[in-house]
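Homework help thread (please don't just give me the answer)

Our assignment gives two proteins as sequence + structure token strings and asks us to describe the second one. The first is just a warm-up. Here they are:
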Amino acid sequence: MVDSQSAAEPIRYRLIMTLLAAVLATGICLVEPPAGLSPAGQRLGAVVVAMALLWSTQAWPLAVTSLLPLAAFPLLQIQAADEVSKAYMSATILLYFSGFAIAIGVERWGLHERLALFCLRVLGTGPRRIVFAFMFGTALISMWISNTAAALLMLPIALAVLPSISQASLAGKGGEDPAAKEQASNREQRFAVALLLGIAYAASIGGICTLIGTPTNGVYAGYWASAAADRPEIAAKYAVSSGQWFLMFTPISIFLFAAAWMVLCFPLERRWTVGEEAREYIGKRYAALGSMDQAEWAMLGVFIGVAFLWLTRASVEIGSVTLIGWEVVLGSLLSSADGSWDYSGWLHDSTAGLLMMTLMFVIPVRPRGQEHRQFLMDWESIEAKTPWGILLLFGGGFAIAGACSSTGLSAWLGDVLADQLAGLGDGGRITVVTTFVIFLTEFTSNTATIATLLPILESTANSLSLDPRLLMLPATVAASCAFMLPIATPPNAIVFSSNRLTVWQMIKAGLWLNLLSVAVVVCFTLFWVLRVASLGN
């Protein structure tokens, strides 16, 4: 029976936070607007403060808070209802919808488990290599499905492997000596910490290098997509395709992966040996999958096809070399056959995603052990498993970004922030922004944080006469680098729920990785993203 006082706590907390948000918003609306800020911008600021409080405290469900602009903006004459509603069904949101649908197909036919177990079979022998194998498999999967799903997949496998590592094999020739047993127990605990945190960290790091790998990347892409209506030339200049994103941020992801592995494996002794039971368990799990059936092969074809189309759609410039995208090739072929076809501005990565998604509904397959054929995907599965709340969170962020631009709030905040950064060089500015975002997202939703910060950072960069991507890109990547606390990201919370970790263990490893992330993001932004990808001041 639920204790009445315990049941009342969440109700009281939500009501208190709601009242506090309303009081703060009302107070902001009643004071005299600061110099340079329009009344509409002030009212928008009140709504943003209220939403930031509700997002950060999670007093309301994140998706419900994300719906506030649809009601508040028209009522406060910030933006018309028709205008604000467009933010909730943009090309970027459809890109994520198609990505979620394909990921559901991958999970439905077990491709993700096959890939994970294959990586463990090939790479895992000693404790350090087992940690590497789990991290590699998790990172590879999280490039294409959500980091939450990747962590949920790998955690049960890790928890099954841990008991198979006997204390005797870790202790070496310790026999039954109590001191040797204690030493073995300590070693096993250090290994468990490294393995579980490795899964959480790799799930976040792997998503950095693809545009659909983590929601924050999609927020950046959607920001410029939503700006295309009012500022088409600027939006076209700063928009990033999936191929360009992969080229820019894969090196950062690789270095962060290496840094995480070294931080976690540093306490592990090299002379450890792992018993055969761990390897046998992984081998048996993989063998139990059997050979790939017709459904798996078809799903693999869809997966490879959409990945190829995403990565090669737009042309990518690397210094003086240009890699021609398929949209250019297709336009040239059609032009030679029938008039003039130019796909510039017509196609989006969501075009390829939705095309491949619809193919899943018309490809018939016969799964192993079934007499009758069925289609690769059905709508009921999409409807049940799509994280609709994440799509609404995107919409709320895009609505805020659009209103910040139209009301002048982002320009005003940008001027204020620019005054603080004026005396710093590019490296100092990137360091300040990166450090701020990394440690802020330890306590707040990374998607909501980036959705709120991007318009402010663009205006700040404009006030400082900088390329806005100098601040916006590292901030976006930094939002995926919160490694210290269980509440920072879903993968952190998932591995913490195993009851094999303490908060202090997470803080010790996560703090070092947070600091290393600042250095990696700053260095690669300056010397790779901005120079090789032709993103200068």
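The one we have to describe:
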Amino acid sequence: MIMVRKTEIWTVLMMVVNIGAYTKSINYKFFVSDITSDAFSLKNQIIESAIEEVTISLEKSVNRIMEQSKPPIRIKWNLLPQSEIPGKVELERCGNSMDQLVSILHNIYNHDSSTSIIAMIHCGSDLFHDIFKSSGLYSPYVTHTISTNCSTQTLIFFEPETDKFTSMYATALLKAAGVRHPNPIKLEEVTNGDNGKELIMTFHDEVIKQLKSSTCFFEQW
């Protein structure tokens, strides 16, 4: 504890040392075709940079809350090196039915059932707008989960606009961490003085509870 005197008022600054804190790490893979990656770069930025920005922002937002736990907990997402997309996983066409999307997820699961995988298909979500709306989903995604496995397989869409991509990819990362809530994240645009507008991430209470209680992590003290 450090005591700092300021005029007539004594201000106490608490320096918190996270003794016993540990990190819950989530390893995952990301599948995207070269065609989709190139198209994303033309519309926004290099997709690897966009992924890194979303991941850093999500970790900061989540850990700001998680580090208040007793003991403090941190969450970290680790993107595994890019591997070749298996031949049966067709990401350059999405068809016009949800069954085709589910089939892609099954092929991803059959390829690797032990690792969480996020895959981007080469089409926007407009084709399935009514389905997502009726399902009450804030962000378009399709997830395949088996209760006995820690891994998830999540399809996201070609949505290069920053706010849409941020919401969609952050949701997929939380799914990879075992979060079951259908709408785990909400983005709020706020004005940040001279810095202009900023996207703030907020979470449903159940999201934090599930991250704290989940055992589907590699724990690093």
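TA reply:
I won't write it for you, but here's a hint about the kind of observation we're looking for: The two ends are 24 Å apart (CA to CA).
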